[in-house]
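Purpose: get a first structural picture of the assembly so the mutagenesis plan has something to point at.
Setup: four entries, given in the order below. No constraints added.
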Amino acid sequence: MKITPEIINEFVAEAFPTAASTGFSCVETADGSATARLAYNEHNIRPGGIVPGPSVFAVADVALWYAVFTRIGLQPMAVTSDMTIHFLRPAIGASLLAKCSLTKVGKRLAHGEIRVWEEGGDPERLIAFASGAYALPD
Amino acid sequence: MKITPEIINEFVAEAFPTAASTGFSCVETADGSATARLAYNEHNIRPGGIVPGPSVFAVADVALWYAVFTRIGLQPMAVTSDMTIHFLRPAIGASLLAKCSLTKVGKRLAHGEIRVWEEGGDPERLIAFASGAYALPD
Amino acid sequence: MKITPEIINEFVAEAFPTAASTGFSCVETADGSATARLAYNEHNIRPGGIVPGPSVFAVADVALWYAVFTRIGLQPMAVTSDMTIHFLRPAIGASLLAKCSLTKVGKRLAHGEIRVWEEGGDPERLIAFASGAYALPD
Amino acid sequence: MKITPEIINEFVAEAFPTAASTGFSCVETADGSATARLAYNEHNIRPGGIVPGPSVFAVADVALWYAVFTRIGLQPMAVTSDMTIHFLRPAIGASLLAKCSLTKVGKRLAHGEIRVWEEGGDPERLIAFASGAYALPD
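Result (structure tokens, whole complex):
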């Protein structure tokens, strides 16, 4: 089964009924990569319209989860093993896009790198860069 | 001025009026360290009562911010430069505590390590271990 | 001045007279990126011809240093601030190549991601993935 | 079998006959922790007597390996999965000590934090702080 954004969004909505309100969605998939979106939410910002760091982390984490789906199928639990994130610039008043490209899928761990930028902005002007590993089921 | 949990909680409530609803608070401070708490929120959990990874990251990030306060005073913006987190166990149905101990405060960066555990549980039974750097103001 | 591999190798040989024996060299540069090479050294291997993890780290670290040169000029000291490395596969009996692409050059820090693979092998078959920050001079 | 520094040093010397010349040794062990030493080597320094970053990484990596020994016995291969290191200060003209404390030993991964300081100096004045995971054998 080819994993499309529609399949992912439907799966997540059913598995996590409260997720619809969190603002995350999958907007693009390919073999070994996926792009997640976090809708701008004026109720969860810092002064000046800055998107909080943990929200930037969250969209990167979700992108890793979606990317893993494209290789091993839908997984009800997101089991991130570790994640390193560098915050490179503030995100101001914008929805975020996070693209994860898997760099390796092994027996136990999948590893990916994730770039986060502002929707509508230059994808090279990164808000954050993250990399991490996801623990695969036995 | 000695930075107490009360001072931090009052400062954060004024600086971020919406923060009260997010469930974060400071519960302990010392010179170069601080403990943050994230109240269990049944509206933000995964199946089985598991606290989401980004929430675990968030309480670690907040603890770093609070710990920096104890050395350089109250800072309106949390400016995490980078953070690495290892998720060691799921947190299930519990509030979280995150203690940050600063390992160095330099001219440009403060660095700390953060341990996260379940409130009421064994503080050695870690939910997550994080370390990261905070960009100090010029 | 355009920073070429020749300029970098000459500079490093003069600044660090012992470096010639360490096996590192720069083999490619572009604006914001550089590729470092670590020559296979049969005197510094693990059983089975495996290149030690710290040697893999070292070539990634050197690549970040070289890449910074392409943006701010030659710097006598390598001042890595932090580095995260995921070891994805063993490198066996081979020289290594490490390509660093800078993701941001700010006022205080430059951040890059680095991919390490075996010379002569598939550049997509990564030995390690690293990312880190370099502290820029005032 | 209780794992002592002597047992570790003998094991490493036999498993890696070239290791004696690298300057690493184990100087202390306890259940779940170990301290590694890297002897100062005037042939492997930067101008000013600064110990290179990759050498600091190496002693941290070795400390993680030794600490794992105290829980699962001697392992011929060091299989670090990931490591994050923050370089906090230069180490100048000194041997290094690195103490690793394991924070969790699971089925697949052991995780530890490592502090590096100058031998003879203040153990709280850190040269580097690292944390990482080690892939346990099946």
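The two ends of chain D are 21 Å apart (CA to CA).
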